[in-house]
Amino acid sequence: MSADTTTMTAGAAGGGSRTTPARPAQPYWNPYVAGFGLGLVLLASFVIMGRGLGASGAFSSVVAAGVGAVAPEHARANPFYAEYLGDGSQNPLMDWLVFEVIGVLIGGFISGTLAGRTRRGIDRGPAVSNRIRLVYAFAGGGIMGIGAKLARGCTSGQAMTGGALLNTGSWAFMMCVFAGAYAMAYFVRRQWL
Amino acid sequence: MNAPFFKFGLFGDNVSLIVAVFIGIGFGFFLERAGLGSARKLTAQFYLTDFAVFKVMFTAIITAMIGLFYLGWMGILDLSLVYLTPTFMLPQVVGGLLLGVGFVVGGYCPGTACVGLATGKIDALVNLLGIFAGILFFGEIFPLISDFYTATPMGQVTLPQIMNIPYGVVVFAAILMAVGGFAGATWVEKMMAKRKEVQAS
Question: Contacts of residue A22 in chain B, CB cutoff 8 Å?
Fold first, then answer.
């Protein structure tokens, strides 16, 4: 598992990070330990709330709220936005997943900062420029946004949550995520290797 | 004890939002601890050098799955009250393929991009902006694709139900599959590390 400890330093050596570290970043946890912790969080969500985790749903609420604020008529006429906006009696941002994602940002920041890993930078392979990396980051995000909405969830809401529930569509989705990523990996290898 | 607590009215909507923040903190914390806030570590999965994504994800799935199974079996958790997303096979297959492509191109998935942003990654911020743009695009064309979006509906259906195999047997099979996958992944990691050493020398 040497790769666990070398990723960040390799990133810095390859020009991935622009700032020099003030103190060395701690190695990542063993994936099984972190995965077990993540599984307990997911289980707690099932037991306390009766629902799993998510991410892309929160972004949909934000997009729907934005469209609703700029063009209310347009948003109401579109069933996709309308579902997130509801009957208008409640702010669409007062949503469970929106608050959960705020927590994700806090939790990620706490963990990263405690481990000396929070620093400004661009994560990429040594063979690609920052500009190209950011173009890819945006393009990949766009494709993911469409994919997550078609699939009614992303890696969190479908693959992990539905995976633990043995949800049929979630398992099919999960296999397809890996298939799509492995099929595409060769064509963008210069960005990472 | 009756769970899910929220469904049994132990607390209301406002408290549920506070619960959401705390569950999110746990979610983000463990993702970052595992290194899944780094695009290079995430995408190493697809170049066979580091299977952290697979290991973390499946350990989490197996942990929660076993917990659900036993809490349901002991009568503590009413599994019928845990929300199950309905299956629409065709759009989910296409959506999964697109998300996989977007993952290796962009470097993150939606949840891990949040962790990347929280730890200062500018590419994660740009990736999130891309996700917003993608969702906006999807929203705008939604009226044109709503037929495809609702194609091949199968309802709320689990693998044990659709295969007509007892719940416990599927749980056991999933555990075996994961453990086999972990062993295989570690073997490939070692092989790739050895190959790199040979190339370097």
Answer: none
Which chain B residues are closer than 8 Å to A116 by Cβ? none
CA distances to A161, A165, B148, B168 from B163, rounded to whole Å, are 20, 15, 25, 13
Q: ipTM of the assembly?
A: 0.96
d(CA B158, CA B17): 28
Q: Which residues of chain B have pLDDT under 70?
A: 1
Chain B residues closer than 8 Å to A47 by CB: 3-5, 67, 71, 77
Q: What is the pLDDT of residue A7?
A: 42
Contact B119, A109 (CB under 8 A): yes
CA atoms of A84 and A61, how far apart (whole Å): 6
Contacts of B128 in chain A (CB under 8 A): 59, 141
Angle at A135 between CA A134 and CA A138, to 5 degrees: 85
CB contact under 8 A, B110 and A55: yes
Q: Which of A36, A177, A182, A189 would you mutate first to test chain B, the one with the most B CBs within 10 A?
A: A177
- Interior/surface letters A161-172, b for 16+ CB within 10 angstroms, e for the rest: bbbbbbbbbbbb
Assign 3-state DSSP to chain A and report helix, strand, coil percentages, each to 5: 70, 0, 30
Coil, strand or helix: which one is B88? strand
Residue in B88, B135, B97 with CA at minimum distance from that of residue A83: B135
As a whole number, mean pLDDT of residues A31-40 equals: 98
Cβ-defined contact of A179 to B71 (cutoff 8 Å): no
**Which tokens belong to B133?**
């743009």
Specify the amino acid at residue A193.
Answer: L
Give the number of other Cβ atoms within 10 Å of residue B190's Cβ: 12
Q: Give the model confidence (pLDDT) of A68-105 as tens digits.
A: 999 999 999 999 999 999 888 889 999 999 999 999 99
Q: Closest chain A residue to B173 measured between Cα atoms? A: A166
CB contact burial B98-127 (16+ within 10 A = b; e otherwise): bbbbbbbbbbbbbbbbbbbbbbbbbbbbbb
Q: Where are the domains of chain A?
A: 28-119, 123-193
DSSP assignment string, B89-156: HHHHHHHHHHHHHHHHHHS--HHHHHHHHHTTBHHHHHHHHHHHHHHHHHHHHHHHHHHHHT-SEEES
Please report which confidence band the pLDDT of residue A44 belongs to, taking 50, 70 and 90 as the band edges.
very high
